[in-house]
Prior knowledge:
globular; TIM Barrel; 10 helices; seven-stranded mixed beta sheet; alpha/beta; 293 residues; 35% helix
Amino acid sequence: MTKIREIEAKTLLSHSSKPDTYFGLKYNMNLYRGCQHRCIYCDSRSECYQIEDFDGEVLVKTNAIELLRKELASKRVKGVIGLGSMNDPFMPIERKYRLAGQALEIIAEFGFPIHIITKSDHILDELETIKRIARVYATVSFTVTTADDDLATKVEPLAPRPSRRLAAMRVLADNGIQTGVTMMPILPFIEDTEENIRGVVAAAADAGATYILGWMGMTLRNRQRDYYYRELDRHFPGVREKYREVYRDRYEAESPWSKKLYALFGNLCQQYGLKTKLPLWAPQHTEQLSLFG
């Protein structure tokens, strides 16, 4: 059972000097620290992030909404705000605290664009607010590493099943929200099959996705690797030995069949009319009128 602890943060929004070219993020925001979904591959367990009890405790930033309003009021440059980089903003605890919902209302008020990454259909609780933000720009990416609910119970044990995520995607798409799939990570020797890639792409297209961002591999950092290997022994006996043989202490673990899978992925996306790059936000510049016409 996850322990919940309330804290006060000093700052909320992190920012980069230039938006990244992959997700287009200028600002990033984490309302919680730690995650309840317990995905066995999660990179946020890595030692470099210094979250000591990632699976056992979730920290709730109780002053997050106050900080967000203050920080957005001081921003002179508008840019995409990202939610979901270090944890899922719509994990179960969100229904008690509703930090993501309140944050989205403030973002809508200030007219900032957003990109949300989630594994949860609870995002539909905030559909109307997201529709307001979409007048500027809103995109919602659902992480789907497999369309097989049974496999997902092993690799993403406490997250809503892929079928629920895809159903939520359909609702967002039908309401005019740009939505798609982050098909990453693809776990070597588990998910890196043609059947799995075909299943994810077909299911995403059927659910109204306009894009899929794919990576045929995963990270294996310190502490993340140890946890992942223990879970491999529980659910996929013998697979850890393959990882040790192929990847040793490597930071990135790309599928041995990645070249073939990327080719398949590209062909499938072309067949279904799906983009493989995220359509990024482009600010609308209004031309200042001359006093003298």
